[in-house]
C-alpha cells in the first residue's frame, strides 16, 4: 500500500510485516514543520539523536540527553498523523542494565507518544532488547557504525569489512533473535548488507548499506542540504536548501541596510482600513 493511501500510522508489527515487500521509507525529524512535510511520504519517522549534531551544534551524539529527546519527540509527534514515530534512546540512558533501559524507554514512549524506541548495539544489547520486548517496548536495533560508540570504534569508519564481517553478522542475528522488529544497518559494505537482509527475518533499514535493504533512512537535514558541515558518502543531496536559505538571508540583510525593506506593502496605514481591506 502506498504511504498516501494509508488510513492510520503503522505500528511495529506492521513494519515488521513489510520484510521483503515494498521498501520502507524513513527520514529523521526533530521539529513539527519538518515532520508535517514528511508525514505523507514516510512509513516511519525517526527522532534521531543526530539532533544533537544537526540542530544543537554538538560534535557528536554523546551529549544528547533524555530531556532533549523528549522535547524533540513531542514536537515531531505534533506533525505526524500517518507515519509511525520511532525515537532514539540517547547515550547512557540504556547501556547500564535492562531495567535502566526499560525505565527510560517507557518514559520516552509515554511522554512523546512514540510507537517504538531505537537503541545502538548488537550481541551486547541482545539481553536488553529481549527484556524490553517482553515488557511491551518495541525495539528497532542499530548495528554497524553506531555513532554513540565512536570513541571505542575510533571514528566514523565503515564497519564489517574483511574479518569484521562475522561480528556484524552475529550482531544482526543476535538482535533479530532477541525480538527487535527491525534493524538499522549503518555504513556496512553492500555485500554484507545484502547477506544480512537475506538471512534475518526482520526488515533491514539501510543508511550507507545497500539498495537491497528492506528500507532506507537518511538524516533529513543532510538530504535537503541544510546540514553542510560535512557530507558522508552515503548521503544524496536531493536539494540545496542551505545555500538557498543563506541567499535569502543575505538579500534581507542588504535590503534592511538599504532601507528597501519593509516596503509599502509590509507596513500599516495611519488610517483604519475600510471594511474588506486587509491593510
Ligand atoms: O540518529 C540518527 O539520525 C540515526 C540515523 C542516522 C539512523 O540513528
What does this structure look like?
This protein has helices spanning 12-16, 32-38, 51-54, 66-79, 98-112, 126-134, 150-153, 165-178, 190-199, 220-223, 241-257, and strands at 24-28, 44-47, 84-88, 116-120, 139-144, 182-186, 204-207, 215-218. The longest helix is centred in the C-terminal third of the chain and has 17 residues, at 241-257. Helices cover 37% and strands 14% of the residues. The protein is elongated. It has an eight-stranded parallel barrel with strand order 1-2-3-4-5-6-7-8, surrounded by five helices. It is of the alpha/beta class and 279 residues long. The termini are far apart. The structure holds 3-methyl-2-oxobutanoic acid (KIV). 3-methyl-2-oxobutanoic acid is lined by residues 28, 46, 48-50, 88, 142, 184, 207, 217, 219. Residues 28, 46, 48-50, 88, 142, 184, 207, 217, 219 line the site of 3-methyl-2-oxobutanoic acid.
Amino acid at each position: 500500500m502506498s504511504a498516501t493511501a494509508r488510513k492510520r500510522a503503522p505500528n511495529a508489527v506492521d513494519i515488521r510485516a513489510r520484510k521483503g515487500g515494498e521498501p520502507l521509507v524513513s527520514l529523521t525529524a526533530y521539529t513539527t514543520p519538518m515532520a508535517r512535510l514528511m508525514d505523507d511520504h514516510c512509513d516511519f519517522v525517526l527522532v534521531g539523536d543526530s539532533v544533537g549534531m544537526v540542530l544543537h551544534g554538538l560534535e557528536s551524539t554523546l551529549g544528547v540527553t533524555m530531556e532533549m529527546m523528549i522535547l524533540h519527540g513531542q514536537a515531531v509527534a505534533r506533525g505526524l498523523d500517518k507515519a509511525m514515530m520511532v525515537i532514539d534512546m540517547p547515550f547512557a540512558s540504556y547501556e547500564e542494565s535492562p531495567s535502566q533501559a526499560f525505565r527510560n524507554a517507557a518514559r520516552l514512549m509515554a511522554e512523546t507518544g512514540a510507537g517504538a524506541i531505537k537503541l545502538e548495539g548488537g550481541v551486547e544489547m541482545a539481553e536488553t532488547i529481549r527484556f524490553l520486548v517482553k515488557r511491551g517496548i518495541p525495539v528497532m536495533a542499530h548495528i554497524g557504525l553506531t555513532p554513540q560508540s565512536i570513541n571505542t570504534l575510533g571514528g566514523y569508519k565503515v564497519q564489517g569489512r574483511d574479518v569484521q564481517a562475522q561480528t556484524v553478522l552475529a550482531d544482526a542475528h543476535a538482535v533479530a533473535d532477541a525480538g527487535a522488529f527491525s534493524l538499522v544497518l549503518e555504513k556496512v559494505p553492500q555485500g554484507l548488507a545484502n547477506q544480512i537482509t537475506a538471512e534475518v527475518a526482520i526488515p533491514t533499514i539501510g543508511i550507507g548499506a545497500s539498495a537491497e535493504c528492506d528500507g532506507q533512512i537518511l538524516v533529513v537535514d543532510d538530504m535537503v542540504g541544510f546540514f553542510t558541515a560535512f557530507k558522508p558518502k552515503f548521503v544524496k543531496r536531493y536539494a540545496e536548501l542551505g545555500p538557498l536559505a543563506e541567499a535569502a538571508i543575505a538579500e534581507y540583510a542588504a535590503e534592511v541596510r538599504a532601507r528597501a525593506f519593509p516596503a509599502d506593502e509590509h507596513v500599516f496605514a495611519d488610517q483604519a482600513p475600510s471594511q474588506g481591506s486587509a491593510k
